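Internal tracking record. Fields below are filled automatically when a chain is submitted to the structure queue. Please do not edit lines marked as system-generated. If the sequence contains nonstandard residues, flag them in the REMARKS field before resubmitting.
Queue: standard
Priority: normal
Entity type: single polypeptide chain
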Amino acid sequence: MKRTASWFAAALVTLLLGASSGVFAKPGDVVKTLKSPGPCLTGLAWDGHLLWAADRRTDKLYAVDPTSGKVVKTLPAPGYWPLGLAFDGKTLWCVDKEDNKIYQISPATGEILHAVDSPARNGFGLAWDGKYLWLADDGSNQILQISTDDGTTVRSFPAPSGHPQGLAFDGTYLWIADRIADELYIATTDGEVLFVLKSPGPYATGLAFDGQHLWNADYQTDKLYKLKVDDREVFSRSNPRHATVTLTHQVRNQGPGKITRLDVYFALPENRDSQEIEGKFRFSPQPADFATDQWGQRFAHFSYTDIPPQGVVTSKMEVKTTVYEITYYVRPEKVGSLTDIPQDIRTRFTQDGSKYMLKNPIIQKAAREAVGNEKNPYWIARKIYRYLMGKMHYELAGGWNVAPAVLARGSGSCSEYSFVYIAMARAAGLPARYVGSVVVRGDDASLDDVFHRWVEVYLPGYGWVPVDPSGGDQPSRRAQALYFGHLSNRFLITTQGGGDSRYMGWTYNMAETWHAEPKTKLQIEAIAEWEPVGK
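SYSTEM-GENERATED OUTPUT FOLLOWS
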């Protein structure tokens, strides 16, 4: 117990110091820029001391001093359309588009030592993992691991997005550049994308890892960028959206009797990593009181009595906010163990709930199938995420069924995906909860009457991290990564909880309870309206 406490104390101090001082660069930040040694750079490699760059127009390979940017050696390319480069510890390897071959080259003389046919339709990026070459195929959108003996494909996986070009290996992960998306991806060797970075320039081509930093050649800016890839920053946020959000809850009594009592609850949003609440909430009318449920969620409570037939009751809350796009830079090897999670969080957020049914055989079996013997909390979360992609599809229908029934049915809404995910995570011993939000729907000024819910899991060393199992249920590995540890700037989170809230039950944003005379019918409407600040 003492070890757990000290571990978290140290992590907290590190995080607070970094946040307050602002000295930590985040992954993807440029720490150095060099002028390109040629006009049309395509490939990069690192030999332990020098950067090697391939240029399509000059048909040359340049050895560049990474400190000064000076070219210290020039070699002829092995063919007339050099693309990706890699260094295997002794020799260079170069992809040639015109010949559709991969050449092994002496870095001392430029002599061709060996050649294999490229198995790619349009091979581009190249990397070395200590035993095999990795090849980015821009034609089939695949990442291939290939033998240097004859070019045989050992294994492959789909590229994160549509135009993979640059490729590098950092000893654990692959880095992949996409020139159309202007993004860099860090991926496992079986293709799971951990997170997504914006590329420093508009046309990312070659990538190389120098043991500490990632280098990126940009074809359009004619620059070599040295990038930070790992630091103490847990997350970064960008793309602020300033808005006024008005939540409206309206009840119409359609008669014939009266509504004898109506209680309306608004979940109160709070400052979070992804949002800031500005000033005080504005209510109409003023709430009767405020309350807090067992999960710590605060509510504004409106109370009404004796609403006659055809009577209309409207409750409103106005929130001024700034919401951000946020990316969590989670590295699985830096995530603590399940026993490092504070006991209070483990106890509260692994307990059962009426929608979860943790002991149900369907949930127990699914958790075993998804997680297996995995002990790392990150991979427990990620394996459940992937498991649901193969078992469910999105379907917005009325009502929220219990997790075992949803999983057996194989379809569900965002809330039902969340219930299944939380049930499986808790069954595996990983703390999980849900958050509920109102959403920008298209234009900056928009109306939302659908809302959205997703999951947060607790990863020791990082805290609560967003996981959206319904949003991420897509074929693209890039899209999957953008719904795990990442949020766009479209959400105002109002609600966080574990279910069975004493005020809101299993719903979120707004809720109501009521009593009425026999045969009385109610029409209930709940919406959120976004207005950009300064409109």
